[in-house]
Design brief:
With 173 residues, the protein is an alpha+beta fold. It has 5 helices and 6 strands; from the N terminus they run αααβααβββββ. It has a 6-stranded antiparallel sheet, covered by helices on one side. Strand 5 and strand 6 form a beta hairpin. The chain starts with a helix and ends in a 5-residue tail after the last strand.
């Protein structure tokens, strides 16, 4: 779990990105991802085939994919959290609590299950639209058509890349 200093730094970083959005957009839409990862086809891409917004972000994790997978499966509000900036999320009344251990009761995620981002019922939940066990979880939404895909790409027997792709189609205004 992040320390309070890391959470404050993360919150300041996010706020800076929002304020400087026009200048930083191309950078933060590809945060941590290589050119190959940005351009690769990933599970869920076919669900929003012509996105108007796409981000591909990635991070290296010093653990094999099999050890990372249980953490992904338990994501969501009221489950394992989003492993993000809890303080910032809870300023928005999300009721997020990041787990610090594997929770056996949340290891059976299935297509059709809901993954909530907030305790507030007005905030739409994502629906699990695809699972490739040990490799990918694709969350989807219909209004507007959206996917949020979490992909584990093994690097070697001791490390994994987590590649997260968000795609959304919306009508231009």
């Amino acid at each position: 779990n992040p320390t309070i200093v890391e959470e404050v730094f993360g919150a300041v970083s996010i706020a800076t990105c929002v304020v400087a959005s026009p200048l930083l957009r191309s950078w933060y839409l590809k945060w941590g991802a290589s050119a190959e990862e940005v351009n690769m086809s990933l599970p869920g891409d076919e669900q929003v085939s012509n996105p108007r917004l796409q981000s591909t972000r990635a991070i290296s994790i010093h653990a094999p994919a099999a050890e990372v997978w249980p953490w992904l499966v338990q994501m969501g509000q009221g489950r394992g959290g989003l492993y993000s900036y809890e303080i910032l999320e809870n300023l928005a009344n999300c009721g997020m609590h990041n787990a610090d251990h594997i929770m056996p009761e949340h290891q059976n995620l299935q297509v059709g299950d809901k993954v909530r981002l907030s305790q507030d019922e007005i905030v739409p939940a994502f629906t699990v639209s695809a699972i490739e066990p040990g490799q990918a979880i694709v969350l989807g939404g219909d209004d507007p058509p959206t996917t949020w895909a979490f992909n584990l790409v093994p690097v070697d027997q001791h490390s994994t890349r987590l590649v997260i792709r968000y795609r959304q189609y919306f009508e231009p205004t």
